[in-house]
Amino acid sequence: QLVDAGGGVVQAGGSLRLSCVATGFALDTYAVGWFRQAPGKEREGIGCITHDDGTTYYIDSVKGRFTISRDVANDAAYLQMNSLEPEDTATYHCAAGYYCKGVEAYGPAYSGQGTQVTVSY
Predict the structure, then answer these.
(1) How far, CA to CA in Å, does 82 sit from each of 19, 51, 55?
(2) Burial state string for 62-77 with b = 16 or more CB within 10 A and e = fewer than 16
(3) Which of 24, 41, 57, 77: disulfide with 32, CB 3.0–4.6 Å?
(4) 23: exposed, middle or buried (C-beta count within 10 Å: 0-12, 13-18, 19+)?
């Protein structure tokens, strides 16, 4: 399974780092994507990192603010979020898939339970 964590309440302009840890399988053979869902809004894929060379893909609204990375040795991936905006408020999930299809992890084989991020004005 995937366990995502690190959410919280932060003021606009602040930062958070979300983690995504795999248990029971090796995350290094999977692409890892992050998606978010806010109340009343559709699910939105925000970025993905490939399993082979670590290439990353992001939606325009988070480019330059969010960074996805991975720690192969610890079967983990991270979403560093800087310059947070109230519009970033959502529940964030990671997902492990076969490859990155745009900003999504195609599959996906596993998804995390979600961690809440709230950005206040």
Answers:
(1) 15, 24, 20
(2) beeebbbebeeeebbb
(3) 77
(4) exposed
DSSP reduced 3-state for 114:
coil
Residue 108 pLDDT: 78
Residue with tokens 């840890």: 21
- Cβ density class 100-118: b for 16+ within 10 Å, e for less: beebbbebbebbbebbebe
